[in-house]
Amino acid sequence: MVITKNRDCRVCGSPDPITLHNIWYRGMYGQLCTACVLAHHAASFCPICFDVYEETKLPPPHLRVMCLRCPAVAHISCVYSLPSSSSSSSTRFHCPQCSIPNFTFFNLVGSAVQNGNVITEDLAKQLVASAKIASMSLHKAAAIARENAEKRAKEAVMARKKAIEALDKVSFLILKEAEEDSRSSSNL
Description:
Blueprint: E1 20-25, E2 28-33, H1 34-39, E3 64-66, E4 73-75, H2 76-81, H3 96-99, H4 121-187
Antiparallel strand pairs: 1-2, 3-4
């Protein structure tokens, strides 16, 4: 596995090494900042509580709602817990990324410093969610790589077997031709 040595986000160019995650993104290994991991994997987590959905952990349809503009999936309970939620908000849900102009995940500049901490609880949840998504991405890429390697190994075994059979056949034909040559030369 080759991880890029560049310490900038592949998407936005953020140079902050603390928030960069190694990830399989668009068919290549690279580093993405926390904000870009979350922005480009909207269907992988609840955009309100930042609970990450593993492949089989997506909430059942009656407990989730999708953003009307992007593939973000939120827990209905999280949508109802929002200050401006009403009974109709679950049917017309827009995630924060789609509903707030200039929204960005993991906004250190825009976050208020609380009790001397730059990382708030919400930012910590975002950082953990993006790390989980990156981890799942690398595990999935590793599984695919392993599957491809096993397939190539089987192909190599079959190719070796065919090569041995071909060499055996060539050896047999050479011996047969040599025998015929020796018979024809002894008949002369």
